[in-house]
Predict the structure.
Amino acid sequence: MNKIEILQNKIENNVGAIIISPKNRLYFTCFESSDGYLLVTKEDAVFITDSRYFEAAEKAKLPCKVKLQGKIFEDITEFFSEHRIENIMLESGTITLKDYRIYQKHLPELKLSDGDELNDIIDEMRKVKSADEVSNIKKAQAIAEAGFDYICKEIKAGKTEKEIQLSLDFFMLSNGADAVSFDTICVSGKNSSLPHGVPSQKRIENGDFVTLDFGAVYKGYHSDMTRTVAVGFATDEMKKVYNVVLEAQKTALESLAPDISCIDADKYARDIIENAGYGEYFGHGTGHGVGVEIHELPNLSPRGTDNLRVGNVVTVEPGIYLPDKFGVRIEDMALITENGYENLTKSPKELIIL
């Protein structure tokens, strides 16, 4: 059963859905485009797109009909009228208020919901990855890990953060990545205390930590990993903090299993960091889901609302960030399995001194 069919099983007979966000279109059709409208009813589905993508979409053998876009609001009205559908769900998580009002204006015969029904259904579906999705994520992760092996040979005192970032990105894009998962983070020395710092022209120095947070995209699916390495040498304080983060990361990872609450998974890491006296320096959640977007549900955090389920793919990435000194973060991706978890990240995470 494909994802469109799963969605059809979850909606009512008298309800239709309009899916326009690029990531959800990709999720349901496995076809990437900057334009398109996926219209779904209980019995039928059509992907409507313009001339830039129509031929490619036809050749891609999508799991639904493909139609060349004419006047889009007429196309939408015609499709739902054919199926005698008036009640329409929209993606509340992505549609803007402006676009919602445009739809109201141009689709007066349809009753557009302003609720979260469709958003909730899709979020629940996207939490649990299929075998094909896991395969794509593993491929994306393998590209990223090859990038880490490569960049460890390039990191040297005197090079700038920006040079390292660009070199890593170029390697991944040259070795199978369709794109990078997000703006690659490469921060060093004092800059490494910034969890989402931006690579700068700062030159790496001996005695610096260098934190790399990066990933690759393969067939629309993302990977995400973080490693912190030392250049030249590491002080006793640097080693101490690194080992606390490593213990927290490994402990949280080992806790992963079906039915474990995301709050508890976060707490395993947070307790170790707090007990070591660094609690105030760990401000973000322990992890998040990964898929067609880099941040998806479920969230491993003190505010998490889910229990882990077989098929979830989540990161485990605790960190300690000491202002104006240095920071450490270590991140793996894990697939929740019936017996616990599978670590999708194979790169070493014991402290590397380059």
